[in-house]
Design a protein that fits this description.
single chain; 264 residues; alpha+beta; four-stranded mixed sheet; 11 helices; 4 strands
Length: 264
């Protein structure tokens, strides 16, 4: 469209086209590129496919990523979350980022107060993020023990690879179909269930949880019970999402009340 206007200006003494001329250009674009006309229909079809009960949850990530490979890019999946939660708010993702940064800066002091973390004086950025993520399930507990093969509850959403640990072998052993961050010596990777999705720089590890939440929304996945309270708190505080009545458990109500009392 911009190129068409530039051509029109070049051919007519740099005059900007009139409104009816711009409308005519837009109509020609739709004629040449029909997918522009069907974008809203395609979005409806995508959500209908994802939300349908045809695909089992454990198979859903692979099926959806195969059908919509754009979801392998963090920017796309974040924008999908925006369309689901606040489609008319163009600043939504910036607001999510700001709320997460505020939460992240405060939760370290909350962890120290709760004696779940040590004061982060000698930790670098990555070490500090790991300390925060390890403490989060303790700070916002749900009362449901993690599966025995999983280990601590934090393993439901992040894992640190040892130098001798093969990432493919680790993913193959996973029993949860939930989104996961795992950290290697070189970078961070996002996976859904046993499927690797994308990588991002290790220095950006502290930005990871909003990405995980976006995948829960975009792929319509269920929270693991062992971190259900934590994710519900992030849903409320960071994403500004409403909590369904069945998810407003006593553990969630207690956790969110204690957090609000600390931050207010």
């Amino acid at each position: 469209m911009t190129n068409m206007i530039s051509i029109a200006r070049a051919s007519d003494d740099c005059r900007y086209p009139a409104e009816h001329e711009v409308t005519a250009m837009a109509k020609r674009l739709v004629e040449y590129y029909p997918m522009l006309k069907d974008s809203s229909s395609n979005e409806w079809s995508r959500r209908n496919f994802i939300d349908s009960g045809v695909v089992k949850e454990q198979d859903r990530p692979i099926k959806i990523l195969d059908a919509y490979p754009c979801f392998k890019e963090v920017d796309h999946v974040m924008d999908e979350m925006r369309r689901i939660l606040q489609p008319t708010n163009p600043r939504y993702l910036s607001e999510v980022k700001d709320r997460w940064e505020t939460f992240y800066s405060k939760v370290q002091f909350y962890g120290v107060m709760k004696k779940a973390m040590k004061p982060p004086k000698t930790l670098n950025g990555v070490e500090h993020a790991i300390a925060v993520y390890t403490a989060l399930p303790t700070l916002f507990p749900c009362g449901t023990a993690p599966p025995k093969k999983l280990g601590p509850s934090s393993e439901a959403f992040f894992h640190i690879l040892t130098p001798s640990e093969d990432p493919d072998a680790f993913l193959h052993r996973r029993t949860l179909s939930s989104p996961l961050m795992f950290i290697s010596e070189d970078n961070c990777m996002l996976a859904i269930g046993t499927t690797p999705v994308t990588t991002f720089e290790k220095d950006l590890l502290h930005e990871g949880p909003p990405y995980l939440m976006a995948y829960y929304y975009a792929l319509h996945l269920t929270y693991p019970k062992c971190i259900g309270t934590l994710l519900s708190v992030l849903q409320t505080v960071i994403l500004g999402g409403a909590i369904h009545e069945r998810d407003a458990t006593p553990s969630y109500k207690k956790a969110i009340a204690e957090w609000q009392a600390f931050t207010e």
